[in-house]
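Action item from last meeting closed. Structure (770 res):
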């Protein structure tokens, strides 16, 4: 048996993608049926579900995970009832299908952790599925079961779409012969059986069905008796596409005799000697030849051709019986890229004549002396092939760290060059700087991952929570193709879980309450990602009851988080932001969904750790919107260097809206706080010195950075603005991680360590620090 352990990681990654795809497709189908979508949309979802389920079944069997493959196969059979129109995808059926996905996901997790599928109650799951078959068992379903082969308790097989079970179909005997050195025969037998079941009814098998389904059919020849409306060539094509199969024989008294005018030709196909993927090109040509006639033989055999083992490394022969003219055969083959020439001759040429064929004029058609010359094919322009390899994220992390060190060294060299004043050195450093920037951009691009990897898991979670709480929720996802750094994506999932769960529990009202308020019965919950300049915005929005600032104040006072005096001075926006304080919850009753006083403070802390910000906007009776602003990448960022009391600090550029010069004569005082009116907008002014408990200089004019805290804008005064610079973020370590207001540190070119200011944390996230 071939060792397939080297493919395990790839299998697991593909399986998880299929599970996410199946989950979302099943939920989308339910939504289409519920809202009365078009048949085209419904069919598209059904087709996608079958593609994913069939692929999952096949890859699991190929890897030897027969139990997992069986569960996928049973789920496919259950959904066959939907495809054939026997049952509608009701919520009950969807629940069972999602239970199948849960078991499949659990098996995949167990395979990753333990190397086996684990112990799951699949019999109980199959019993739930069996109830749907029993509802229609008295009609057509019993006819679909394999005569004399279905074991007691096995599920009834549902009819395929477009197939009339009351019509008498032709019966064929199919022999599939393995190559002598074929690996994984048992797995391949199982997949062939599954493929034949897609074409019609498999009446008999040798070995017996149970042996094949368990992946134990380790034989040289498989035999199937199949009732199907498909023609013999279609059957042969389906079976022969499996690479381990050497020969396929389809026997039937009803096979059509050769059509009048059908001739036998030997076709020699020459590929460009330096063409890539010759095996793939050749195999596609063979498939086209099978569509226009009966392929009698090939030299070399089909397996060797598919593997790129051609005669002299660049050509092969095929003997075909067809009524298509030699000229049309040449045209059919020449449409493929990388074909250098084609020779078509009447009759079968013996293997010893290969050399003669090779020397024949390329692009010709006819017999020994071609009766008609065909214009030689023009060499096809070489197609650029995308070569993709998988790289461990840890390797990219190390590579990014090395680039970060290069950026630091580059800064040091720039300082030395400026001190020496050497023009040639400065020009060389300019080139080096450009190359480093390109290298940095390429590596950051490699680390970017679509947020769909996280978003795809939420439709299922939202559905289950809504059903559990008796609510109806329309869940809308936008911008799933937006890309962010892998590090950010890994931490984003838990944050969005908190926000979505709170929206369903706190925000969206029950259907009867919404109807009384004149709202649609189904609440709307949106999850949106969008790119904004140097950062990404993630928005979670609902149209529920909103957040009552007075209720928030009252709860905060009860919990001792603020005083009544502080509450009286707070604006509605400041009051709403109190929900980010640790231990705060407006939920009267604790549930397993929310209300334990944890969640929103976690959201704030995680977003702060990602050097981002979170803001909330809410209106009573209309809904709530959370906006997360996150950097695209956390490894190397652009920052503005500033100076306060002789010390240099770095402020990430994505935190800054603009820089301004402020004259003290333009400052106003509102409620004891200094503000400035900027383009008609009142903006509080805070000196960074105050936040650091340093003496504030009495300058008449000073620079300031305007930043957005979500709830409002703030101008932060400093002593001096220095210059913009690429910086590498270094962690402060566990000992200093509790200090708020700093995202980390960086090393400048002269070796000095500079703290990176985290504006949102420094100002308290807009929760009363202003």
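Sequence:
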């Amino acid at each position: 048996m071939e060792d397939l352990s080297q493919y395990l990681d790839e299998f697991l990654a593909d399986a998880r993608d299929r599970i996410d795809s199946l989950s979302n497709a099943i939920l989308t189908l339910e939504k289409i049926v519920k809202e009365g979508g078009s048949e085209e949309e419904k069919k598209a979802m059904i087709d996608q579900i079958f593609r994913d389920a069939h692929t999952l079944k096949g890859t699991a069997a190929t890897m030897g995970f027969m139990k997992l493959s069986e569960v996928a196969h049973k789920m496919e059979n259950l959904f066959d009832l939907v495809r054939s129109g026997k049952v509608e995808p009701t919520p009950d059926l969807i629940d069972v299908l999602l239970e199948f996905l849960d078991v499949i996901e659990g098996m995949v997790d167990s395979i990753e952790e333990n190397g086996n599928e684990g112990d799951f109650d699949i019999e109980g799951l199959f019993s739930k599925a069996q109830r749907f078959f029993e509802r229609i068992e008295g009609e057509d379903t019993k006819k679909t079961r394999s005569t004399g082969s279905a074991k007691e308790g096995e599920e009834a097989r549902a009819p395929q779409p477009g197939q009339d079970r009351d019509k008498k179909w032709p019966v064929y005997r199919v022999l599939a012969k393995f190559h002598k050195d074929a690996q994984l025969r048992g797995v391949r037998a199982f997949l062939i059986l599954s493929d034949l079941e897609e074409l019609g009814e498999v009446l008999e098998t040798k070995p017996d069905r149970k042996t094949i389904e368990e992946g134990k059919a380790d034989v040289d020849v498989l035999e199937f008796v199949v009732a199907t409306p498909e023609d013999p060539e279609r059957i042969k094509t389906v079976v022969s596409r499996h690479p381990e199969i050497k020969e396929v024989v389809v026997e039937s008294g009803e096979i059509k005799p050769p059509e009048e005018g059908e001739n036998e030709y030997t076709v020699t196909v020459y590929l460009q000697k330096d063409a890539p993927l010759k095996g793939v090109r050749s195999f596609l040509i063979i498939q086209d030849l099978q569509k226009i006639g009966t392929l009698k033989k090939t030299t070399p055999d089909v397996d060797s051709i598919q593997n790129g083992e051609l005669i002299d490394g660049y050509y092969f022969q095929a003997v075909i019986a067809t009524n298509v003219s030699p000229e049309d055969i040449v045209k059919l083959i020449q449409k493929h890229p990388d074909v250098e020439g084609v020779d078509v001759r009447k009759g079968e040429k013996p293997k010893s004549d290969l050399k003669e064929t090779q020397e024949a004029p390329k692009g010709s058609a006819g017999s020994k002396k071609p009766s008609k010359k065909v214009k030689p094919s023009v060499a096809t322009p070489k197609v650029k092939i995308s070569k993709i390899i998988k790289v461990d994220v840890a390797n990219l992390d190390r590579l990014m760290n090395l680039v970060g060190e290069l950026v630091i060294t580059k800064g040091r060299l720039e300082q030395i060059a400026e001190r020496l004043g050497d023009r040639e050195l400065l020009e060389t450093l300019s080139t080096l700087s450009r190359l480093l920037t390109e290298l940095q951009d390429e590596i950051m691009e490699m680390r970017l991952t679509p947020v769909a990897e996280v978003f795809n898991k939420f439709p299922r979670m939202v559905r289950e929570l809504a059903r559990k709480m008796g609510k109806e929720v329309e869940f809308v996802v936008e911008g799933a193709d937006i890309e962010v750094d892998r590090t950010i994506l890994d931490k984003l999932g838990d944050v969005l879980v908190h926000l979505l769960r709170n929206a369903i529990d706190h925000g969206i009202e029950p259907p009867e309450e919404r109807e009384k308020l004149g709202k649609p019965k189904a609440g709307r919950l949106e999850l949106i990602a969008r790119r904004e300049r140097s950062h990404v915005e993630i928005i979670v929005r609902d149209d529920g009851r909103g957040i009552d600032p007075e209720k928030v104040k009252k709860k905060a006072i009860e919990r001792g988080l603020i005083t009544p005096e502080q509450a009286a001075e707070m604006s509605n926006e400041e009051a709403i932001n109190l929900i980010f304080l640790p231990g705060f919850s407006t939920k009267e009753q604790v549930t397993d969904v929310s209300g334990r006083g944890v969640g929103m403070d976690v959201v704030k802390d995680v977003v702060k750790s990602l050097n981002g910000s979170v803001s909330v906007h809410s209106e009573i009776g209309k809904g709530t919107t959370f906006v997360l602003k996150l950097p695209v990448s956390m490894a190397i960022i652009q920052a503005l260097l500033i100076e306060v009391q002789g010390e240099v600090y770095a402020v990430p550029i994505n935190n800054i809206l603009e820089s301004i010069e402020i004259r003290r004569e333009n400052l106003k005082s509102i409620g004891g706080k200094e503000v400035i009116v900027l383009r008609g907008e009142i903006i509080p002014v805070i000196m960074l010195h105050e936040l650091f408990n340093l003496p504030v200089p009495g300058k008449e004019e000073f620079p300031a950075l305007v930043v957005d805290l979500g709830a409002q804008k703030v101008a932060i005064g400093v002593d001096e603005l220095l210059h913009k610079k690429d910086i590498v973020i270094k962690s402060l370590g566990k000992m200093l991680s509790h200090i708020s207001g700093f995202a980390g540190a960086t090393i400048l070119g002269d070796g000095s360590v500079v703290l990176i200011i985290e504006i949102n944390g420094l100002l308290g996230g807009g929760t009363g620090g202003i």
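Note appended to the action item: The chain is about 40% helix and 25% strand.
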